[in-house]
């Protein structure tokens, strides 16, 4: 987990689908006057220069946000996300990609709060630098986000959006996300939880959705985006999955519009596609 650097993957297809959902969920929670917290268990550096040595090595943003940057036919939810990314690139050139913390901050109100956790020593320093001007609203900690949830939940306003997206470099991460959500639901059943996971050929990734569906959650939404067919050698990520507990009631209809577009815009080969399912209380 400590070797993973999101800077190598910033703005890729996984970020696109994850951040479209994040923006929609944050906007929905912001419709009520009462404040809420955004909690990011694996925050990374918070924002990324796409011409850096890390980001340019793989240039994954070219098959992600790069494919949306010049389009004028974006569905409303995708357009809202792209517009937020444009705020970080005022000259119109795609040079900076805002990570989840930066996008969350851009959507939150003055009384909302961010709690950001990161274990990688270099990334947490960058995270602190990137949010130093927002000390009243943002707290950054060099800590294990899984463990932090036990101390944070329930948050004082009794409203929160919790993002959990570890690297899954270690097999135990698949177990840890399930245990973290189970414990979080016991402490704070009314929270909104957004979990990202990679679509891989490995067994743990294949079994994770069924394990998530067995959690004691009254309502959930599960969406997957596949951009390519799995590699013959089983190597690499061919898509992403997102599991939302206590989703906004509007999210299902939004994704019914968005997902066919993202398949068309981000798909690489004939293996591209999506799935969408939900459970209501």
Descriptive terms for the model:
281 residues; alpha/beta; eight-stranded mixed sheet; two-stranded antiparallel ribbon; 9 helices
C-alpha Rg (nearest Å): 17 Å
Largest sheet: 8 strands, mixed
Mean pLDDT score, rounded?
94
Strand content: 15-25%
Oligomeric status: single chain
Helix and strand succession?
A: HEEHHEHEHEHEHEHEEHE
How many β-strand runs?
10
Characterize the overall form. globular
Portion of residues in helices?
25-40%
Q: Tally the helices.
A: 9
Structural class per helix/strand content?
Answer: alpha/beta
Low-confidence stretches: none
For the biggest β-sheet, the strand order reads 5-4-1-6-7-9-8-10
Distance between the termini: 35 Å
In short:
With about 280 residues, the protein is α/β, with parallel strands linked by helices. The protein has helices at about 15-30, 55-60, 75-85, 100-105, 120-130, 145-150, 170-185, 205-215, 250-265, and strands at about 35-40, 45-50, 95-100, 115, 140, 160-165, 190-200, 220-225, 240-245, 275-280.
Q: What's the SSE blueprint?
A:
Blueprint: H1 13-29, E1 37-40, E2 47-49, H2 53-58, H3 76-87, E3 96-98, H4 100-107, E4 113-117, H5 121-130, E5 138-141, H6 145-152, E6 160-164, H7 172-187, E7 192-199, H8 203-213, E8 220-226, E9 239-245, H9 251-266, E10 273-279
Parallel strand pairs: 1-4, 1-6, 4-5, 6-7
Antiparallel strand pairs: 2-3, 7-9, 8-9, 8-10
Helix pairs in contact: 1-3, 1-4, 6-7
Describe the structure.
- It is a single chain.
- This protein is α/β, with parallel strands linked by helices and 281 residues long.
- It has nine helices and ten strands.
- It has helices at 13-29, 53-58, 76-87, 100-107, 121-130, 145-152, 172-187, 203-213, 251-266, and strands at residues 37-40, 47-49, 96-98, 113-117, 138-141, 160-164, 192-199, 220-226, 239-245, 273-279.
- The strands form two sheets. The protein has an eight-stranded mixed beta sheet, sandwiched between helices.
- β4 (113-117), α5 and β5 (138-141) form a beta-alpha-beta unit.
- α1 crosses α3.
- The longest helix is centred in the N-terminal third of the chain and has 17 residues, at 13-29.
- The radius of gyration is 17 Å and the shape is globular.
- The model has no long low-confidence stretch (mean pLDDT 94).
């Amino acid at each position: 987990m400590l070797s993973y650097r999101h800077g190598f993957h910033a703005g890729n297809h996984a970020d696109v689908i994850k951040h479209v959902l994040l923006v929609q969920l944050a906007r929905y929670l912001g419709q009520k006057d009462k404040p809420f917290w955004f909690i990011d268990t694996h925050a990374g550096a918070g924002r990324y220069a796409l011409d850096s040595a890390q980001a340019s090595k793989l240039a994954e943003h070219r098959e992600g946000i790069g494919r949306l940057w010049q389009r004028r036919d974006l569905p409303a939810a995708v357009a809202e996300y792209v517009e937020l990314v444009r705020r970080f690139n005022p000259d119109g050139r795609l040079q900076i990609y805002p990570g989840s913390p930066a996008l969350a901050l851009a959507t939150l109100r003055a009384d909302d709060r961010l709690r950001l956790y990161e274990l990688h020593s270099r990334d947490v320093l960058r995270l602190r630098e990137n949010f130093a001007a927002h000390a009243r609203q943002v707290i950054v900690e060099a800590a294990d986000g899984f463990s932090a949830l036990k101390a944070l939940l329930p948050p004082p306003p009794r409203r929160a959006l919790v993002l959990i997206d570890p690297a899954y470099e270690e097999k135990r991460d698949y177990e840890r996300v399930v245990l973290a959500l189970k414990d979080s639901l016991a402490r704070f059943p009314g929270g909104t939880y957004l979990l990202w996971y990679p679509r891989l050929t490995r067994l743990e990734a294949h079994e994770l959705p069924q394990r998530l569906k067995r959690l004691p959650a009254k309502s959930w939404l599960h969406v997957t985006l596949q951009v390519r067919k799995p590699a013959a050698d089983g190597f690499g990520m061919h898509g992403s999955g997102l599991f939302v507990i206590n989703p906004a009631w509007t999210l299902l209809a939004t994704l019914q519009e968005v997902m066919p577009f993202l398949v068309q815009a981000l798909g690489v080969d004939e293996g591209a596609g999506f799935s969408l399912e939900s459970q209501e209380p």
